[in-house]
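Need tokens for this chain, all 413 residues.
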Amino acid sequence: MSDDFARVTYARILAEPRFRVLFATRSLVIAADTLRMVALSVLVYARTGSPLLAAVAFGIGFLPQVAGGALLGSLADRLRPRPLITGVYAAEAVAALALGLLDLPVAVCLLLVAAIACVTPVVSGAVNRLAAEVLPGDGFVLGRSLMMIAAAVAQLMGLAFGGIAVAALGDRRALLVTAAVYAVAAVLVRALLDDLPPAPAGEGPASSVVGASRAANRRLWRDRAVRTILLAQWLPAAFVAGAESLLIPYAQVRGHGEAAGAVLLAALPVGMAAGNVVCGRLLRPHTRERLVVPMMALFGLPLLALAADLPLPVLTALLAVTGAGFAYELGLQRPFVDAVPEEARGQAFGLLSTGLMTLQGLGPVLLGAVAEVLGVGRAVALAGVACGVTALLLRRVLLRVRGGRGAGRPAAR
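Here are the structure tokens for all 413 residues:
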């Protein structure tokens, strides 16, 4: 174990050519997604003058993932990954090209992005299934760590470059830049990724895509270990996303000014990147898994202090600690891979992605409603309390899952 841990490094992970392609292209697509969100929101607001429609345009890519994960998730295992990933990235390029070149009605623009979003969980499931296959053992955990760091950086760059690109080029030309990035990702996957086979077929007669997707989701959800690991990744992220959505009004209510809100928002991904590096590279696998519950609590604990009126540097440091606490998710990766059947691994990762996106979309709505009643500071603190309560409620089952793995329990099939 110690020798294996010592040999697994970020450099060795990136030396795996198949993972390197997945890592690079997924980072490009996340940056493109963020740029598209900014440009489309600006375009819709310019055409309608409606803040509500602009907000809908910004978040339209999240909620439709529920339908995709529920009805199409089995495609992540049924189809060969290279044509699947290439096809979806190419479709995103075509959609962005249409948004930038054609004078489409706003409703059509939103429906186009929503339709593409339906297959996002399928691609996410395929990418993570393939990563788990090419990076066995602790290599997959470090691979997930790298992907999370890259996602944080890509989102920051996408937001920053999105504002610059829209200001310099205009919303439509910015969408054309987005189309070009999607196209580059599609070409790289097609040219550089091996044409690997789909997942091995499970037992029983073949069924339709929708039927197989629904049946596999029910089977995964009925497994207590899988259900608990999913909830452990979904719920704290939703609570913190809700708190994050309140940071700009929080900064203004506390008298720190509008610019301070951007500083507070940036502290979270910076802390997340640092936490992933430390936990992914410096902690041994069993240590990571043993610290899941304490770090899940740490994810929300600093938010309690935001109920008070604190100086901006202290607030920034607390939010960086919150971001670092999200590294608890690394300790759940190996148990999750072990708990799901190999023939449904892609769908399991798609289900994970679907829940994350959906609940992170609902979290801001719920916390925003709470803030209307209790005030912004108390609502943010309540999100921290919810993280701690979640850690306590899931603690017993998570310990049992970890204990079962340590005792050599076979993966649930």
